[in-house]
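New to this. Explain these tokens.
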Amino acid sequence: MGLGAALAGCPTDEPFGPANRDSGVAPGEGIELHGQVVDFESCPVGDGCDALAGMVVEVLGSSLQSEPSAQDGAFLIEGAPAGTALTLAVRGTAADGGAHARTILAGSVGPSDRDVYGITMYAMGRRTEYALLEAIMDQEGIDLEGSGGYVGQVVARIDPEVDCRADPDDPTCEICPDLEAGLCAVRDATARISLPGYGTIEYARGLPSFLADQPNQEVIDDDAPVTNVSGMFVVLPSTPSIGDLSIEIAREGMTFLALDASVEPGGVTFGFHRAE
């Protein structure tokens, strides 16, 4: 399978939350949020994701936001409230020219009383040949950004010491026959959402760039009951909605924690669903 089907480097090696370093934040003071903005569609190509400059990261439900991201995609938000879960969104500035949708990251930052490092914000493309949102619009007639839709990917971080060629009977190899960096998308998983009437779940074959050499394959597989090698699914809203989703993933032999996500018109929400 390989990470051409998944997102290369999707969950970072440094998990969301406080890094193991002393932040020096005193009680009652705000904390700093440090991270990088990357281009969602670039992630399956090469060894990593392309950094995006000129993007603004905001904290939902507040006026807090970063300055435009640097050339390496780095961003900083100062004065974020300590001890509470935060949801972040990334959007373009005039410099971006409308190339990227406002993208909300599900489960962005857990409660912390220390500065937070290693946050990766994925900005989903639009108006380009290989943009997932454009492909869904063409196929389903639904504007995921305008209506507040959801894109998820089911992934597992696997022991990189496992060699499926040497030990093909290892349980890992059923899920990830071609391991790279101990990370893979999970196939044969199902998704369920908690918000009645919000929308329908459809399973995706992969990003348009991954399907470029398969001209007769549409992005959404309308007949699929589970994830395929891409591990991806989308939630197509019935009507534009504002609310909180709890998304549950099920797969035989694997355990997933429910992921909470904010959805609202004017932004598409993206989330990784990691196996425990």
User: Anything to note?
Assistant: The domain at 134-274 is CATH 2.60.40.10 (Immunoglobulin-like). Residues 1-27 have pLDDT under 50 and may be disordered.
